[in-house]
Amino acid sequence: MIRKELLDILVCPMGKAELRLEGDWLVCTKCGPRFRIEDDIPIMLIEDAELPEGIDSIEHLPCMQTPH
Ligand SMILES: [Zn+2]
């Protein structure tokens, strides 16, 4: 199980939004992609993330559209 302290410092690599834990996945609370956790290590690469339903390209994610 991933440590709470680690979860607190991790943010979405695109919009820096908070993440929530869903089983073996970390999900961006703003733009929705799911990042896999392997051996307690979250894979925070958008290339490897599972995109939310209806989104076929990372450019379409809300976090990619807001300037920051
Ligand atoms: Zn995001």
Q: Tell me the CATH topology.
A: N-terminal domain of TfIIb
Morphology call: globular
Rounded to an integer, what's the Rg over CA atoms? 11 Å
Strand order, biggest sheet? 1-2-3-4
Quaternary structure classification: single chain
What compounds sit in this structure?
zinc ion
Describe the protein in words.
With 68 residues, this protein is of the alpha+beta class. The protein has one domain (4-65): N-terminal domain of TfIIb. Helices cover 15% and strands 22% of the residues. The chain has two helices and four strands. It has helices spanning 4-9, 62-65; strands at 19-22, 25-28, 34-38, 41-42. A four-stranded antiparallel β-sheet has the order 1-2-3-4, with no helix packed on it. Bound molecules: zinc ion. Zinc ion is lined by residues 12, 14-15, 17, 28, 30-31, 63.
